[in-house]
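[agent] plan:
  1. take the single chain provided in the ticket
  2. run structure prediction with default settings
  3. attach structure tokens to the ticket
  4. add a short note for the reviewer (M.T.)
[agent] executing step 1
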Amino acid sequence: MKVNAAVLKEMFAKALIAESSFKRKEFRCTWSADPVYAGHVFELAGKPGSGKTELMIRFFSENPGLKVAWIEEEFSFYPYFWEQSGLDLKKVCFLESGTHWSWCARQALNSGIFDCLVLGGGTRDALELRRLQLLAEKSKCPVFLLSNEPTQAGAWPIQMQFSVQRMFDGSLSVRKLSLKKHSLG
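[agent] step 2 finished; step 3 output follows
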């Protein structure tokens, strides 16, 4: 094949179009200085009552219309709080998974129905986190882990880890524990 300037220009144009298709959707998130991208795994760690759920409500208020799968081992979420925040409960599927959180999360991500996945509670090993990360990337769905204690700091499947704490005045303190760098944005 003889290559001239026109052929090269066409090849580069196709490459740029292909590269732009890899760009991840970015979500608005006022409590994080760094962007929240679709296909990444994030962790909010803090004691019960620290405000993790409140931060998620804030995230969904900033990104209205998202279809959410909210999975907990034992149901603890108060749906009325969701409605009080002006969010549509019809856009949320609450699942009580028992010990089968991993299976439920995989089904939710594989379904392609949801725009976001929230996992509360549960012990997560590195292998399960890696599976979750791969499915999040494939489904282009951000995954938020809500935990009482941070997973091993800098655990490689987790894009960003945050520590959440409720202050004496009722405000929330959000501190970034780690950030994993990616070449694709």
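[agent] step 4 note for reviewer: The radius of gyration is 19 Å.
[agent] ticket updated
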